[in-house]
Amino acid sequence: MFEHARCWVNGQLVPAEQASVSVFDHGFLYGDGIFEGVRFYNKRAFRLPLHLKRLQRSAAALQLQIPHEEVFIQAVYAVIEASELQDGYLRIIATRGVGVLGINPATCKEPGVIVIADQLQMVSDAERAKGIRAIITATRRSQPDRLDPRIKSLNYLTSIFARMEANFAGVEEGILLNDRGCVAEGTAENIFIMRDGELLTPAPTEGALAGITRATVLELAAQLGIKTRETVLTAYDLYSADECFFTGTGARLIPVREIDGRKIQTCPGEAYQRLAVAFADLVHQETTSLSP
Ligand code: PMP
């Protein structure tokens, strides 16, 4: 199971089977912590500075003192090297650390810092080729004035509830609305639709994570001459879309062929295909050049 997984735990490289955290770590006890998922290609982490920036912002929101980004960069390259993988997935985690059983974060003196390198395949190649099915879940994203979805925290129960609904419905993914009934995102992906030649996606203030793949896709669309707009989307917009796809570090780009039983006009659509090719090209370009 952990054949390729390599871990860096609080400054030490350790084999996956021996990598562990204390049961008194508040990350474990209360979900008090943050994380990032990063892909690496050709042993190079893709857009690592953006992930470390988002990690640092999540840490600021939690008032969590995390190590300097250089520490993360070194840990990332240490686990990549140790994994012997060319391409893979990294998980960077910072927890509140060990404290008393009570919830008070002030009792935790040092954050726990973990970096894992492993493989991750979210969908099979066959599923990606034909597109996946999704439902709009009864579970809603929390509003930015509650637990702000822009914080990438260890609290993923909302996504897990939504994914359980999708599993129960026998489809591959769930789409969460916000409290106003507008589209937010998938359980671990941002969502895009094409309509009248325009690429549309909800703004982070609608309850979406400020996804790094999302930002990359918006950038690539602009380069390809596809008009883009952050906007409010409802279920109707999804059902009547010309195309729909998810984006995420784990997912990369995944086309959607059906939502709540409604067949999406084209899947995989033309815009999706152009963007998926452009994304693969960009990844190749950025991870084979000599710049750090
Ligand atoms: N939304 C959620 C809830 C996620 O967990 C993720 C995965 N990090 C995304 C969106 C996609 O973000 P990114 O492209 O930065 O991976």
Automatic annotation (TrEMBL):
One GO MF term attached to the UniProt entry: L-leucine-2-oxoglutarate transaminase activity
SUPFAM superfamilies associated with the record: D-aminoacid aminotransferase-like PLP-dependent enzymes
Any coiled-coil regions, as ranges: none
Enzyme Commission designation: 2.6.1.42
A Pfam cross-reference name: Aminotran_4
Entry GO CC: cytosol
Transmembrane intervals: none
Pathway: Amino-acid biosynthesis; L-valine biosynthesis; L-valine from pyruvate: step 4/4; Amino-acid biosynthesis; L-isoleucine biosynthesis; L-isoleucine from 2-oxobutanoate: step 4/4; Amino-acid biosynthesis; L-leucine biosynthesis; L-leucine from 3-methyl-2-oxobutanoate: step 4/4; Cofactor biosynthesis; tetrahydrofolate biosynthesis; 4-aminobenzoate from chorismate: step 2/2
Record GO biological process: folic acid biosynthetic process; isoleucine biosynthetic process; L-leucine biosynthetic process; L-valine biosynthetic process
Cofactor needs: pyridoxal 5'-phosphate
Keywords of this entry: Amino-acid biosynthesis, Aminotransferase, Branched-chain amino acid biosynthesis, Folate biosynthesis, Pyridoxal phosphate, Transferase
InterPro entries: Aminotrans_IV (IPR001544), Aminotrans_IV_CS (IPR018300), Aminotransferase-like (IPR036038), B_amino_transI (IPR005785), BCAT-like_C (IPR043132), BCAT-like_N (IPR043131), Class-IV_PLP-Dep_Aminotrnsfr (IPR050571)
Catalytic activity: L-leucine + 2-oxoglutarate = 4-methyl-2-oxopentanoate + L-glutamate; 4-amino-4-deoxychorismate = 4-aminobenzoate + pyruvate + H(+); L-valine + 2-oxoglutarate = 3-methyl-2-oxobutanoate + L-glutamate; L-isoleucine + 2-oxoglutarate = (S)-3-methyl-2-oxopentanoate + L-glutamate
NCBIfam families in alphabetical order: ilvE_I (TIGR01122)
Task of the protein: Acts on leucine, isoleucine and valine. Involved in the biosynthesis of p-aminobenzoate (PABA), a precursor of tetrahydrofolate. Converts 4-amino-4-deoxychorismate into 4-aminobenzoate (PABA) and pyruvate.
Family of the protein in this entry: Belongs to the class-IV pyridoxal-phosphate-dependent aminotransferase family.
Name assigned to this protein: Branched-chain-amino-acid aminotransferase
Organism: Thiothrix eikelboomii
Gene: ilvE
